[in-house]
Here is the input.
Amino acid sequence: MTSIAEQSQKLVGDFVKQHSKGGGEAMNGMGMGDPANVGKAFFEMTRRMLTDPTKLWKAQMDWWQDYITLVNNTSRRWLAGTPSAPVIETPAGDRRFKDEAWQQNAIFDFIKQSYLLTARTIQNSIKEIDGLDEQTARKVDFYTRQFVDAMAPSNFVMTNPEVLKATIDSKGENLVRGLKNMLEDLERGKGNLRIRMTDEKAFQVGRDIGVTPGKVILQTDLMQLIQYSPSTEKVHKTPLLIIPPWINKFYILDLRAKNSYVKWLVDQGHTVFMISWVNPGKELADKGFDAYMEEGPLAALDAMEKVTGEKEFNVVGYCLGGTLLASLLAYMKAQKDERVKSATYLVTLVDFTEAGELSVFIDEEQLAALEKRMNKRGFLEGYEMATTFNMLRANDLIWSFVINNYLLGKEPFPFDLLYWNSDSTRMPAAMHSFYLRNMYQKNLLIQPGGVSLKGTKLDLRKIDTPTYLVGTKEDHICPWKSVYSATQIYKGDVEFVLSGSGHIAGVVNHPDANKYQYWTSSRLEKSADDWFDGAKEHPGSWWPHWQQWIKEYAGNKIDADKRIPGKGKLKAIEDAPGTYVKFKVV
Here is the structure.
């Protein structure tokens, strides 16, 4: 143990010495949320709770009765080996307690159930408080969950059987390795703890991921436009543009051949164009939402028209890219520009009334603090946005890696999806402020004339482009019922499909994987619940269903040699995936 202490002391000493001259730049790691505002919410919660102490007393008595039962059950099991039914079951899908010792060892089973009982009591008590406004209630619930997750016994050496065994077996070497890993993560984050989720050396964009062949044929300040090479002898006449979100990188749609949405589309005979957004610096601080429209999809459509000679295009928008697509169509409608033949929205919000768990970060105090930080730098730092999203699934995206990397002292496992998740991007200050205030805070996009781009007032009600909407059942970022609300806004033919799983896996679900399911209905009810009650469930991916739908708008087949990237009026700048996507925030 003396050796362990000496090694630990040296590691910490070296780190402190290196940063003692002000090299660190630690900032608010809570991302969009300012912790100072949480205190006000919890003060109001406490005040409301004390106005009805009987509820609190009843919750405590219920917990006490269950706890006494747990103590008695554990005593019988310990003394007489008598098994008994658990007082509280581990929630389905909770991987924190997957080690056999949590069930087989009486002490660890007691620790686990004590925690689950206490967690349930705390969270239920919070949810039953009357009189809190919606934003305060949401904030209290969210940060209570953060605290409860952080206090799980699996997160501590002495109460995690797997970690305890590893510590004994290695005589503490796992903790020394873990400390080394933690200090390296602090070093990478310049004082912020940026937890590695995967082996970042195992992947390289353009080598292992994002490898579908193509060429960059256009570059603006904000994006590179990729045209992918055909893989079939014939291709559909109508080209297809994909607008990904710029909150993260486009290659989530082109990870590997076995799960690439891009490759699958190309293999179906589509001429696919992809916007690859820039990872901006302070020089782009003043680029607003209208610039993203003008230098993004509008510039892309002009380029596509030039290289293909076509006047009509199908467009797919993913998440924030879909919000931009809706804004684009409203703008084009006002300009009498009818080039978009069909629109596909993947997990897209245009009505932000119920905007998911990200709403917890949207109030005046937090937005003002965020804008102050952004205006100082010119952008929102990538790790801040990443931390915000990770907090939405803290057990999976924070604490599991704390255990693996720091307590067990292991290296993170190579995983392409987690590599992408860690490859964060910045947001220009002007654009991000506009987006958060006009969409999330004020919900102006669904109000006719509520948002103006390039001097043109937008009215989503006038969009009559044939529309295909995809929501995902377990989406915590874009709740599917909020996605569904767009069916009541657009005119013309509208198809809504609900996919199983969540924001990423429900969208990127290759048919060959035979995973999940999706729901369809021939009727668009006013209520999302009514739609679901009448919907039919189908096994597998929604992609083939979309392919059948898009055929009406994809046009006849033409020779693929007419769609070779770089052979048209715009010459190839470089090979796909281009350079913009390869820039990493260090």
